[in-house]
Write a structure and sequence with these properties.
By secondary structure, the chain is an alpha+beta fold. The protein has one domain: Nuclear Transport Factor 2, Chain: A, CATH 3.10.450. It has four helices and seven strands, in the order αααββαβββββ. Strands 1, 2, 3, 4, 5, 6 and 7 form a seven-stranded mixed β-sheet that branches. Strand 4 and strand 5 form a beta hairpin. The two termini are 22 Å apart.
Amino acid sequence: MRFPVLALLLAAMPLSAATPPAGDSAGLVAFADAFDRAQLAKDGAALERMVADDLVFIDGSGKRLDKKAFIEGWTAPGDRFELIVLRDRTVVMLGPDAGVVGAETTLRGVSGGDAFVSHFRFADTFRRTGRRWQAAHIQVTRMP
């Protein structure tokens, strides 16, 4: 995807050295970190497994998108992403099998041959079915 669309598709990017909270949230945080790494590495196969088929993705413009659009936004040929730093990370457990992980970050990279910078806050909602966590809802808010 080209930069304007890609910038709106950016969600769940934190790769930080933050210590995960104790308790049930440790597994969720580990999954969220792996999810972030898969996005930045453009690992389409991992994203296929990590994203629920019924994903609801709300991009930075408020547009509702699906799993296919989310994965295409991260795996477009020629696009590259730099490592990111999380700020103000939050983890909210909604029960033993659901939780929301969010943060503020700035993503830099190249899309469609053009350099870009995108500053945003995101909230990724994950659910666990059996032993498998998946992203079920992603919300991105662009910031100045």
